[in-house]
Amino acid sequence: MEDEKLVQLFSEQLYAYQTIPCRFGSKIPATNNGFKDAKQNYVLNLIQDGCNVGLACEASNLIAIDCDYDPSRGYDGVAKLQELELKYGKLPRTLTQTTPRGGKHYIFSAKGIINPVGKLNEDIDVKYRGYLMIWPSVVNGVQYKFTDGVDDGIFKIAELPEKWLDAINQPNYAESRTQTQIYENINIEAMFNGCAFLQHCRDDAATLSEPEWFTMITAFAPIADSDDLIHQLSSPYPRYNYKQTQQKIDQARRFGKSRSCAYISRNFGYCNNCKYRKKEIK
Length: 282
What we know:
Blueprint: H1 2-14, E1 18-22, E2 39-40, H2 43-48, E3 52-56, E4 62-67, E5 69-70, E6 75-76, H3 77-88, E7 95-98, E8 104-109, E9 119-121, E10 124-127, E11 131-134, E12 138-139, E13 142-143, E14 145-148, E15 150-151, E16 154-155, H4 162-168, H5 173-177, H6 188-193, H7 196-203, H8 210-220, H9 227-234, H10 242-255, H11 261-268
Antiparallel strand pairs: 1-2, 1-3, 3-11, 4-8, 4-10, 5-6, 7-8, 7-14, 9-10, 12-13, 15-16
Helix pairs in contact: 9-10
């Protein structure tokens, strides 16, 4: 009975994140396009179908520090992480799971993440632009288990301290943070009137995909005092969350620029014939 309660409780916590089914007992995605097919709201269905579960990190606004452990190959990521904490400061308590091999995943908010490195050292990977196997997945007969960062069944997702952000992001991150330009006295109504994509984001907010939503946010984030507008545009989504939306706004500002017309055209099919579209620089 206790296991059934945990399944229900943890499934509800994971409900807000983007996940994919993986084959039984395997890390191999059971989707045509891997983690790109991740979607929200169906973790419990995956569990009931006997699937392993992959968590799409970037799409879920999460990042994981993945500490490998394999004594036979000389890997001890947890010990190496303690060495890094002496350099960058102790990491805050956050959602943590053990892996079938005995390694650990420390799962953090992706707030402040722009262009992360793939590895911190030979024993520690950074999982962001991809997916992470997560509870209750089983590989080689052993289950992934949450072992810390769960208070009364509620996940604790901490933010990375500034020194850790600087360590994880690519070397040009610190410079890019200072170059984000904020614009004032922008005619918001004119922006909507001149852009079919923004009209779509406003009128179809309840059904936007995460990439469309974030692209919309990048258009308004560089504008002074635009937070309330972005929250207003985001609120029709059935699972709107103020904190998550604010994290996306902060992420967009650190990103430092709006998604281009060419990007929107290439990924969402809008702007192909728009007279305002800027030509893509090659």
